[in-house]
Each structure stands twice: as structure tokens, then as C-alpha cells.
Design goal:
Oligomer: single chain
Helix content: 25-40%
Structural class: alpha/beta
Strand content: 5-15%
């Protein structure tokens, strides 16, 4: 029966006569006998006060709860963590960012399964919230919808739009003597004017857009701004949406297929999204039990153009994309051009193509999204590179504006703190290939993002003249000639560990290669001399992460696989 299917899990505690204590405790929270006949819907909020991306999510979760309770459902809010990449960037806190993704997934899975909830709505805002929530939704495979808290409004200084990356790059301008203290402080004060996730096509907006293309959120969810009536209306419609999903019995694994993941990464490519998407897609595919490798991303990137003039490498912000119709309008254009599989199912119960039927086409006079016949780059900006420096692969973000080929001399740093000092002291020069190693999944530990050094390089005016490679990763706000995710990482004896100052390195985004120009005999001698450094921690969550995490080339998963 329909009612039995809808409360398949909760009835084990709400209807079983041998569970009187469970029912007594549910009465204590205000549910009467009639309420206990209705399904329990978990509302997982990553809201907390310490970060603009997440500061408003608990309020949204309460709106969603009220919407759910207008249906014959019981909405129950619970919370989990979030680590602010923007606040922790360049500090020891960044080691906890990527591990938080798996902790978020684990905690949501535990709560929903442990408390016998029949469905799940996740309310998320920052970079690791979204893939973490998605991984939990796929593991549980119960009716579920993701709600993104939305993007922040732009700041402004002397007519120039600002976002959080403006503050990082201002530091680079200041330390290089190109910006005075007063201007620097003014940009810091104005960059982030209120609630919402970082405003460019950085990791948060990248993943939100991807999830809309996957079909696991309602239409327009990704681009409705945080502080907007549209976001409020979206939350007010969640009750009806999750009820319909539960009635039909549609589950996340019905929606997230290989075709849906391919649709999502095509959109990431068109929008110029973050390299972090590769890590997260691999982990999402793992949670869904779908085989996916770096070769899949390479194929999509080779055959999909970059069309969006969005920050970090472009001019516009997510609020500008919203103004021209949002992610839905971009997908409408992509579908018309044959770039998407419109047959994929979504949480509306309709196909992607059906959802897009009523969407207005992009205005021909807008300048945020270029046409297919005049792309910013004919192939994707995310390049999967291989070579003697990255036998298992590396991920580069190269839009073409910084060129497609770079050869230079290695400037080696064993950690981010060293490189930040080197940049501030002027030790990074034109023509250098900056190497940051021992910052991978195990070596970091936690594979921290290298936004601070890349932003400093851009701010110092060296963006066109310096490349940066690492076994760590990059923020979605990073731009320039950068290569991350180098695998195997240095900590486990990957070739990056054997690079020395002055070695010549070539990065080729046409041939998709990264080559260390050192003969094999010399490399063998270095390999024999090399000794693995001790892990940077010997206890706690980071030690547990370092001991369990897989390579970046397989998504940094910690669950041992699907």
C-alpha cells in the first residue's frame, strides 16, 4: 500500500507495539497518535553562525519544516557540521575541509538510518556540504531533495564588484607594493556583504549547478540568490515536492545515473567550474555505485566548450547569471544544442527536458554566456594531465587566457606555509614552476586548497609568468596556470617527491601532459635516496583520515568503495 511504502522505515518505531519507549519519546516532542501514522522526514541543516555561506541555513530549514508539516508528514530538523573554506584558507584549519565532506556524509547517513526517517531534505551552503549531502542521499537511497542556500550578493569598491577572492588577491597586491593599506582594508570590509556562498563560479556554485543538472534539486535552486524572495518561495514549496517524491517512490539512485553525471560535468565545463568538481564527482559516483574514472572527465572536457565569462577567470558573478535566467537557462541552451541528455529523471518526477520546456531562452544580447559558435575556449578548461610527474593523473584548470603551454624551472616548497613566505619575500620569480608538495590527501593531511598562494601570485602580477603544481588542490576561486591533484602524492612516494630546485618542467594543456625533464637514471637515484616523512599527525580525526583516504585520482573516498 502507498501509506506503507511512504513510512517504510519510520513505522518500525512509530507503529510497532513492541516499541513503546520510542513512541513515548516521539510524543514528548509533540507528535500525537495521528502524527505517528505519518512518515518522518529528516531535514539536515549545515547551518551555523560562523560563516556567511551557512549563517542563514537554519532559518531556511525552519521554513522547509513548516512547508513539510503542511503535508501529512513530520518534518524533523537535525544539524551537522560545515568548515568554511574561506575562513580556514591558508591556515591549519584547511586540513579539515575535505575530510569534513566525508564526515557530513557519515553524519547524515547515521541520523537518517539510525532514526528511521523515511525521506531526507538537505540544506547546504558551502563547498563540502553539497557533495557530502549528496553522498549520504545516495548511500541511503530514500526519497531526497537537496536545497542550496544560494549565492552571496556582490560587494563594491569604487564601482568595482567584489567577492571573497578579491580579498585574497588584494593581499597579493599589498605585499607586492601595488596597493596601499587603506584600500586593502576597505576591500576586506566590503567584499562579503551578507549571507550566501562565495559569489563566483567557485566550488559552492559549481557543485550547486552540477546538482541541478543531475536532477537532485528543484529547478532554479542553484542560481536563486541567498537573500531573495525566490529562495524563500523555493523553500515553501519543499513540502509538496518531497511528498510527491515519496508518493512516486523515486529515489536518488533512480536519478543519479551515468548520463546524469555526464550532464552535470558538461554543465561544469560550460560554466568554467572548479577543479574540485572532479574529486567530488568521483566520490558521488562511488556512493551511487557507478564506475567513473578520470578518463570520463577527460572525454567530456575534450568535447565540451567553455562558454561562461564567470569569475574567477572571467568578469561575472553568479548573481549576474541569475539575472539572465540562471542555470536553468544555460541548460535550456545546452539541451537545444545537443549537449545534454534530456531523458534523465529529476526530483520533480519529470525528465530534465520536461523541466526545461517552460524556461525562457537566453537573451541574445546578454554577455555572460557565449554562443557555441563563439566560445571562450573550444574545449573544456579542466584538463586531465598525465606524465612522469603524474602517472595516475593530475587535474589542471586552464581557460586558455594564461596560455596552453608552460615550461619553467622548479621552485620547490614542502608545504603551503613555505610558499607563502617565499612569495612574500620575492623568492618566486617569472618563469618559475612553483612546486608545493606533501599537501595531498595523506601528506596534508586533508589535501588543503592552495588559494592563498595562487591569489598572491595573481595579486603580485605574476599570473601570466608563473605556473603552480601540487599534490594538494585548488579553490574554485583559483585561476592562472595551475595543476593540482597530482597522483600518486609525494607522501606515498609519488614522483613529485623527487623534484629539485632548477629542474625543468613542462605543462602542456594541448597534449594533456606534465613532464619532469630529468633522465630516468637520475630519477632512480633520487627515488632510492628518498624517505617518506612521518605523517604530520599521529592521533585524532586527521590521523584517521590519513590512514583511510584513497588517492585523489579515485576521489579521496574513505569508505572503501561502493
Amino acid at each position: 500500500m502507498k501509506s506503507q511504502r511512504m513510512n517504510m522505515y519510520s513505522r518500525k518505531v512509530t507503529q510497532d507495539a513492541t516499541q513503546p519507549a520510542a513512541q513515548a519519546m516521539l510524543h514528548a516532542i509533540g507528535l500525537d497518535d495521528e502524527d505517528l501514522k505519518n512518515p518522518l522526514v529528516g531535514i539536515a541543516s549545515t547551518g551555523y553562525e560562523g560563516n556567511p555561506c551557512n549563517m542563514h541555513l537554519n532559518d531556511l530549514a525552519q521554513r522547509i519544516k513548516h512547508s513539510i508539516n503542511r503535508q501529512p508528514l513530520n518534518g524533523l530538523v537535525f544539524n551537522t557540521i560545515g568548515i568554511s573554506d574561506g575562513i580556514s584558507m591558508g591556515t591549519s584549519g584547511m586540513h579539515y575541509s575535505l575530510p569534513s565532506r566525508d564526515l557530513i556524509a557519515d553524519s547524515m547517513e547515521m541520523m537518517v538510518a539510525g532514526m528511521h526517517y523515511d525521506a531526507l531534505v538537505t540544506v547546504v551552503g558551502c563547498d563540502k556540504n553539497m557533495p557530502g549531502a549528496l553522498m549520504a542521499m545516495l548511500r541511503l537511497n530514500r526519497p531526497a531533495i537537496l536545497v542550496y542556500g544560494g549565492t552571496i550578493a556582490s560587494g563594491c569598491h569604487q564601482g568595482r564588484k567584489l567577492d571573497v577572492v578579491s580579498a585574497f588577491e588584494a593581499w597579493g597586491e599589498k605585499v607586492s607594493g601595488q596597493m596601499d593599506e587603506e584600500t586593502y582594508r576597505s576591500i576586506i570590509h566590503k567584499a562579503c556583504p551578507g549571507a550566501g556562498a562565495c559569489g563566483g563560479m567557485y566550488t559552492a556554485n559549481t557543485m550547486a549547478s552540477a546538482i541541478e543538472a543531475m536532477g537532485l534539486c528543484l529547478p532554479y535552486n542553484a542560481s536563486n540568490p541567498a537573500c531573495s524572495e525566490a529562495k524563500i518561495q523555493e523553500c515553501q514549496g519543499l513540502g509538496q515536492a518531497i511528498y510527491a517524491l515519496m508518493e512516486t517512490g523515486i529515489k536518488p539512485r533512480d536519478i543519479v545515473t551515468k548520463s546524469a553525471l555526464e550532464n552535470a560535468f558538461k554543465l561544469v565545463t560550460v560554466l568554467g567550474g572548479s577543479t574540485n568538481a572532479v574529486l567530488h564527482f568521483l566520490a558521488i559516483a562511488d556512493a551511487a555505485g557507478i564506475p567513473m574514472t578520470l578518463a570520463d572527465f577527460e572525454k567530456i572536457s575534450d568535447n565540451t566548450p567553455l562558454l561562461a565569462d564567470l569569475k574567477p577567470s572571467g568578469r561575472y558573478l553568479m548573481e549576474d547569471l541569475h539575472a539572465i535566467g540562471g542555470v536553468a537557462a544555460v541548460m535550456h541552451y545546452m539541451l537545444a544544442q545537443g549537449l545534454l541528455d534530456g531523458s534523465c529523471l529529476t526530483v520533480t518526477g519529470k525528465t530534465l527536458a520536461e523541466n526545461l520546456e517552460a524556461v525562457k531562452p537566453l537573451d541574445k544580447n546578454q554577455s555572460v554566456i557565449k554562443s557555441l559558435d563563439r566560445p571562450i575556449k573550444e574545449s573544456g578548461h579542466i584538463r586531465i594531465l598525465y606524465g612522469n610527474l603524474a602517472p595516475d593523473g593530475a587535474v589542471a584548470k586552464i581557460t586558455g587566457k594564461e596560455g596552453l603551454l608552460f615550461t619553467g624551472q622548479a621552485r620547490v616548497f614542502d608545504g603551503e606555509e613555505q610558499v607563502n613566505q617565499g612569495i612574500a619575500q620575492g623568492r618566486v620569480q617569472k618563469g618559475d614552476v612553483v612546486v608545493i608538495r606533501y599537501v595531498g590527501p595523506k601528506g596534508g593531511p586533508g589535501m588543503p586548497e592552495m588559494l592563498k598562494p595562487t591569489a598572491a601570485i595573481i595579486g603580485a602580477g605574476l599570473g601570466a609568468d608563473v605556473a603552480l603544481i601540487t599534490d594538494g588542490r585548488f579553490s574554485g576561486g583559483t585561476h592562472g596556470f595551475v595543476v593540482g591533484h597530482i597522483s600518486p602524492e609525494a607522501q606515498v612516494g609519488g614522483p613529485l617527491a623527487w623534484v629539485e630546485n632548477g629542474d625543468r618542467i613542462t605543462i602542456d594543456a594541448v597534449e594533456n601532459s606534465i613532464v619532469l625533464h630529468v633522465d630516468e637514471v637520475t630519477l632512480k637515484q633520487r627515488r632510492q635516496r628518498w624517505q617518506a616523512p612521518q605523517l604530520k599527525t599521529e592521533s585524532g580525526v586527521l590521523y584517521k583520515y590519513a590512514c583511510t583516504v584513497s588517492s585523489a585520482s579515485s576521489g579521496c573516498v574513505t569508505d572503501g568503495g561502493a
